[in-house]
Structures are given as structure tokens and as C-alpha cells.
Design brief:
Length: 284
């Protein structure tokens, strides 16, 4: 059975670590297996991201949930399949087809509307036995380059947001952004610490590609429990496939070799993140 993020939170709290949440390319099986097998090998909870806006158009959320649940059945480590940046429609769909971890992203809405809609989504998620992440503040790709401190989440607003919505996890803007950074980001550790204290819920760090691992370990000591990584994995997969393709002429092209190279690249990268973040051996 698929796990909720709340199922693994106490373990992460007790070790004060931040677990890598790894994007699985809309549920593409080689992404899924590359990541899952690395987590199993390293005895680390497998937190796998499905990016909401793309997921439904690709394999369909129902197929992704069924496939992941199949592999979770005999897994020695908990498997958390997490809908990332869901709309209201996608959250409803994901919960209906068996996701037990979702994010509702209302960060584009004015605060009061974000709170109202996130609260409705949180009630729905909890009725389904799922945990839910909410977003407050903006860390879109473009914000990285221009916004500076203006985009940071206000801890007082974070406290109100969590209290009034009932979310289990909070994704705040603390100097992070999606995609590849032009320069290493300057994370605001004092904000993380204050938000952890005031909200009492685990924090989620988006835009993990390119954040120095030392910063993430430090964030883990301040209540950051999940770091989302997508862009790095997508690039690794594409480069491994291209490389495998270059090594053969067209008449001998092997889909198994090409996709296998992508899968192995993700396996290696996932192990690297798990070890760097101190998450190896979390599951005895
Ligand atoms: Zn994100």
C-alpha cells in the first residue's frame, strides 16, 4: 500500500533529516524503477513526485497510481507517491485513484482565497486518508532571477495558513526557485527555523536542483523534511539516453539499452542524494 508523507515524518524528525523527493517523469517506468530501486537499496523511504500539470496528459494518474502501488506491495521501504503542484481538479482525481500524498498549490491566489481553497482540499485529502502539502509564497522559475527578498514567505502568514487550512506540510519561499539556478541560491535559514517553530509542521523545499547539499543538511536540522528534485533528474536521464544512442548505429538501436542507461543514471543520482542527505539506512 502507498504510504502518506505523515507516515514517515516521525522518522525524519527523529533523525532531523530532509528526505529527497525525486521526480519520476510523469510515472515513466524507467524513472520510477531507477528511483525506487535506489531507495530500496539504500533503505530510505521512497518519496516520488508526479508533477501535476503534466501527469494527467501523459500516462494518466490512475495508471501511475496502479503501477506504483504494484511495486509498493513488496517494498521493504515505505513508498510515498506524491502529486506535486496539484490544481483542485488534479487533487480530486489523484485522491480518487489512490494517491495518499498530494500537494495543492494555491499560491497564485490572494491569501484569503488560498486559505479557503487549501482548507477544502485538506479536508478532502484527510477524508481519503491522505496527507497534504500547501504552498505559501512564490518560487516559480522566473522569480528566482528577479524577485529577491520580496518573494519570501512571512512567518506570521505561514502560522495563520497552517492553523486555518490544516495542511500537514508547508512549502514556503525561503530563497529557493524551480529549475537550474544562475548562481547558488541564498537560503534564509532563520526564516525556516521561525516557521518550523510557529507552524509545528514539516517544511518542504522546492527547487532542489542546484542547492548545495550542505545547505540542505543544515535546513534538515531546522525542520525542512523534504527536498524536491526534478530538473537534475530529467537532465541526467536525457543525457544518459543520448550517450547510449551515440554509441550504436541506427540499425542496432536498442530501446532496452537506451532506457536502461536512463534508469541507471537516475539510480546513481538518487543514491548520491540519499547518501549526501544522511538518509541511507533510515529504514532498519
Ligand atoms: Zn515545486
Amino acid at each position: 500500500m502507498l504510504a502518506t508523507f505523515s507516515d514517515i515524518t516521525p522518522l525524519l524528525e527523529s533523525k532531523r533529516v530532509c528526505v529527497p523527493a525525486l521526480d519520476i517523469g510523469g510515472g515513466q517506468p524507467d524513472f520510477l524503477l531507477g528511483v525506487l530501486r535506489a531507495c530500496q537499496e539504500a533503505r530510505c523511504p521512497a518519496v516520488m513526485l508526479i508533477w501535476g500539470p503534466a501527469a494527467q496528459d501523459y500516462m494518466g494518474l490512475d495508471a501511475v497510481a496502479a503501477l506504483t502501488a504494484h511495486y509498493a506491495r513488496d517494498s521493504a521501504v515505505p513508498v510515498v507517491l506524491h502529486l506535486d503542484h496539484g490544481t483542485e481538479e488534479l487533487v480530486r482525481k489523484a485522491l480518487d485513484v489512490g494517491f495518499r500524498s498530494v500537494m495543492f498549490d494555491g499560491s497564485d491566489l490572494p491569501l484569503d482565497q488560498n486559505i479557503a481553497l487549501t482548507r477544502r482540499m485538506a479536508e478532502l485529502a484527510h477524508d481519503h486518508g491522505a496527507s497534504i502539502e500547501g504552498e505559501l509564497g512564490k518560487f516559480g522559475r522566473e522569480q528566482a532571477e528577479q524577485a529577491g527578498d520580496t518573494a519570501l514567505t512571512d512567518p506570521a502568514e505561514a502560522e495563520r495558513f497552517v492553523r486555518e487550512t490544516g495542511v500537514d506540510i508547508l512549502a514556503p519561499a525561503v530563497g529557493n526557485a524551480h529549475g537550474f539556478y544562475n548562481a547558488p541560491p541564498r537560503l534564509r535559514f532563520e526564516l525556516m527555523e521561525e516557521m518550523t517553530t510557529r507552524t509545528g509542521v514539516p517544511l518542504s523545499l522546492h527547487g532542489g536542483t542546484g542547492i548545495p547539499m550542505g545547505d540542505v543538511r543544515r535546513a534538515g536540522r531546522l525542520g525542512m523534511r523534504k527536498i524536491n528534485i526534478a530538473s537534475r533528474l530529467h537532465r541526467d536521464f536525457a543525457e544518459a539516453m543520448k550517450q547510449a544512442n551515440r554509441e550504436v548505429d541506427d540499425r542496432k538501436f536498442s530501446w532496452r539499452k537506451a532506457l536502461g542507461a536512463g534508469r541507471e543514471a537516475l539510480h546513481r543520482r538518487a543514491l548520491e542524494y540519499i547518501r549526501d542527505l544522511g538518509c541511507e539506512g533510515l529504514i532498519p
